[in-house]
Automatic annotation (TrEMBL), chain A:
Domain of life, source organism: Bacteria
Compartments, as annotated in UniProt: Cell membrane
Annotated organism of origin: Cryobacterium breve
Its membrane topology: Multi-pass membrane protein
Protein name: ABC transporter permease
UniProtKB/TrEMBL annotation, chain B:
Protein origin, superkingdom: Bacteria
Keyword hit for Glycoprotein: no
A Pfam family annotated for this UniProt entry: Peripla_BP_4
Gene3D superfamilies, sorted: 3.40.50.2300
PANTHER family referenced in this protein's UniProt entry, alphabetically: D-ALLOSE-BINDING PERIPLASMIC PROTEIN-RELATED (PTHR46847)
Family, per entry: Belongs to the bacterial solute-binding protein 2 family.
Domain spans labelled Periplasmic binding protein: 44-306
Signal sequence extent: 1-28
InterPro entries membership: Peripla_BP_I (IPR028082), SBP_2_dom (IPR025997)
Listed name of the protein: Substrate-binding domain-containing protein
Cellular compartments annotated: Cell envelope
Organism in which the protein naturally occurs: Cryobacterium breve
Length: 354, 336
């Protein structure tokens, strides 16, 4: 954070010499129009309009609450994934970490703290707090394991995190015997504050704070600068004196810890730790990151893009259910949207930005 | 078959490989291998669908009990999480290479596993199918299953009772499924629909959706339905995953007990929620009984060359609700 003055004035990824010059108003508008976030916000608005026309009940705080509740868990792992992807890697283990951390946390609350489903509401606060620490700790451990496999054993991130994904999935099944473990719960933390007017929940506020801090780390701090540098060119980053291994360890640890936090979020939502609760979520996270404009080649990506990408993903999901699209078609529609989003970006980067 | 565990398809082959490696390490619980009563050294290989499914965990307990009682060795195998033929076939091959005396197989695909059954039979290893069956049953000693269509019908009855069905009334219900390809889902839904059509014409099934084996997705589906249908009367959650997700969605919206919820599979966590009024009823299968009968049949067949078990056996489902006795709860709750 110390060098924030230096880094705020430019977008990471653009070499320092090319400081943006003040633009004329028309140029500003045209930059804005081709801006990634503007496009994503445009897509969001379009989706909301279309779904609301097809199903008027879609335009409500209730729906906003549904979408944001889904968004909460995936945006956490997608933000971690953004750091990993910008650093030039990939983390396939995050979905499995959601399951494992939720199960270990539930197991700890049930067997160590000896609390069951009957402990709820504010009585559950203590156990849930400890459960959160356990959950984040489990995610952190898996993240550090990923870093060890990648840095010390020189396994490429795809395979390293694929292995930990399998191991985490297997362990969560062994610990839970494959079934949900019920323990303390407090649905008030995850329910909308006022379903009619205010879709936010306490759990969501925590998520938003964490995501904001992560965004500051990526865009305003040396931590982010290093991440972009490594993803753009590892050799140059090393040459510039960045300890690449140490930094990648932090990046994968961050991704793991955020996935652990997501595990607790899902636990809160289900009131139980379930080994299959992260099934397929790593792909949702990658989709959100890609829709948000990050490049799987590394060096490019924005937290804000990921946040919007995840929001779009769940707006589509909720909208299709509300409109009543046959479930068989849902995957096809989502797939087309992802392809369209990425194609739009590719074309835009060819035409717009040089 | 219980449900289709679709793991992460894009990672495809590599994932299947990695996961089946894990599978190979979680092996064999053995009973005492020889006793005075066993006529020969019998080892029964039991290849199930997906270890992470409580349904198969309950089956495992039944299989272990019976193997111990019969004094035979049990080789318990299967993929840890993925219910699919491409991961199951190599596991069956590996198990057959161990030359067991008998094989209990839960084929994940009726056609794809037919060759594995033929291979076992050719090697003189008798085969029993449990839960699901291969297309051609002529090589199979016996096929033992729960009745999914009957389970669906019983779920319709339980839901109709909960929503206070009266002739002439009109009611809206939704059904949470796992995927379009899970055959148990299909037969349960068919049974449910047939019963609704026959006895409860006022009930309209307004929507269905898939959970993709993820309870959080199941919760998402139900949350959206609750917004779309503010006058929803009931939910049929077709398996354990959907049951957990639907229960969570109702709880977080403060609607538990106000909307009828009939689930499937007696996970301990869900059984506890019958007592707290969140579930109206749970349809429970008896996988342990299926497994016990399968082992018993095979041992009998190996020792005597014939078996008293019918060629096809259907073990009925039971409905657990607030009126169920504690003894029955204990009997049908899937074990940890």
């Amino acid at each position: 954070m110390t060098n924030s003055n230096q880094t705020t004035t430019r977008k990471p990824g653009i070499p320092a010499e090319q400081k943006p010059v003040p633009l004329a108003l028309t140029a500003r508008i045209s930059t804005l129009a081709s801006n990634q976030s503007t496009i994503l916000i445009g897509v969001m608005v379009l989706l909301i309009v279309v779904f609301s026309v097809l199903e008027p009940k879609f335009f409500s705080a209730l729906t906003a609450s549904n979408i944001l509740t889904d968004w909460g868990s995936v945006v956490l792992i997608a933000v971690g994934q953004t750091f990993v992807v910008i650093s030039g890697g990939i983390d396939l283990s995050v979905g499995a970490i959601i399951g494992l951390s939720g199960v270990v946390s539930a197991w700890t609350m049930a067997n160590v703290l000896k609390v069951d489903q009957t402990v709820s509401g504010s009585d559950a606060s203590g156990p849930l707090f400890i459960g959160t620490l356990v959950s984040v700790g489990v995610g952190l451990l898996v993240g550090l394991t990923n870093a060890f496999l990648i840095n010390k054993l020189r396994i490429v991130p795809f395979i390293a995190t694929l292995s930990t994904m399998g191991a985490a999935l297997g362990l969560s099944v062994i610990i839970s015997s494959g079934q949900p473990i019920g323990s303390a719960n407090n649905f008030d933390l995850i329910a909308a504050m006022d379903p009619k007017t205010n879709p936010l929940s306490w759990a969501l506020i925590v998520v938003i704070v964490v995501v904001t801090i992560a965004g500051l780390f990526l865009h305003k701090a040396r931590f982010g600068l290093y991440t972009y540098a490594i993803g753009s060119n590892t050799f140059a980053a090393r040459g510039a004196g960045i300890n690449v291994e140490r930094h990648l360890t932090l990046v994968y640890a961050l991704s793991g810890a955020l996935a652990g936090l997501a595990g607790m979020y899902v636990y809160l939502r289900l009131g139980a730790g379930s080994p299959s609760s992260g099934t397929g979520r790593e792909l949702d996270a990658i989709a959100a990151v890609v829709i948000g404009g990050a490049s799987l080649m590394g060096g490019i990506g924005r937290i804000w893009g990921t946040v919007l990408g995840a929001l779009i993903l769940f707006t589509v999901q909720s909208g299709l259910i509300m409109v009543g699209v046959a479930p068989d078609w849902k995957k096809v529609v989502v797939a087309i949207l992802i392809a369209a989003a990425v194609a739009a970006q590719t074309l835009q980067s060819k035409n717009g930005r040089k | 078959m219980k449900r289709s565990y679709r793991a992460i398809t894009t990672v495809g082959v590599a994932a299947a490989f990695a996961i089946s490696m894990t599978a190979c390490s979680t092996t064999a619980s053995t009973g005492s291998s020889t006793t005075a009563t066993a006529k020969k050294d019998i080892s029964i290989a039991f290849v199930m669908g997906a270890e992470s499914d409580p349904f198969f965990q309950a089956m495992k307990v039944g299989a272990e009990d019976e193997a111990k009682a019969e004094g035979v060795k049990l080789i318990w195998q299967g993929d840890p999480a993925k219910y699919s033929a491409e991961t199951q076939i190599p596991i069956v091959d590996a198990v057959l290479a161990q030359q067991p005396t008998g094989l209990v197989l839960i084929p994940t695909d009726p056609k794809a596993l037919q060759a594995s059954v033929a291979k076992a039979t050719a090697a003189g290893i008798p085969v029993v199918n449990v839960d699901t069956h291969v297309g051609d049953l002529k090589d199979v000693v016996s096929f033992i299953t729960g009745d999914n269509a009957d389970g669906g019908a019983k779920a319709a009855d339980a839901l109709a009772t909960q929503i206070g069905y009266k002739t002439g009334g009109s009611y809206k219900v939704v059904v949470g499924l796992t995927s379009a390809t899970a055959t148990t889902n299909v037969s349960r839904l068919d049974g449910f629909k047939a019963q609704v059509a026959a006895k409860y014409p006022g009930v309209e099934i307004v929507d269905v959706a898939y959970s993709e084996s993820n309870p959080e997705t199941a919760a998402t589906n139900v949350s959206n339905w609750l917004t779309k249908y503010p006058d929803l009367n009931g939910i049929f959650a077709i398996d354990g995953t959907n049951a957990s997700g639907a229960a969570a969605a109702l709880e977080s919206k403060g609607l538990s007990g106000k909307i009828g919820l009939v689930g499937y599979d007696a996970y301990p966590d869900n059984v506890a929620k019958i007592k707290s009024g969140i579930f109206t009823a749970l349809v429970a299968q008896d996988p342990a009984a299926e497994a016990r009968l399968a082992i018993k049949t095979l041992v009998e067949f190996i020792n005597t060359g014939k078996t008293a078990t019918e060629h096809e056996v259907v073990i009925p489902n039971v409905v657990l609700d607030s009126k169920t006795s504690d003894a029955d709860f204990a009997k049908y709750t899937y074990v940890k």
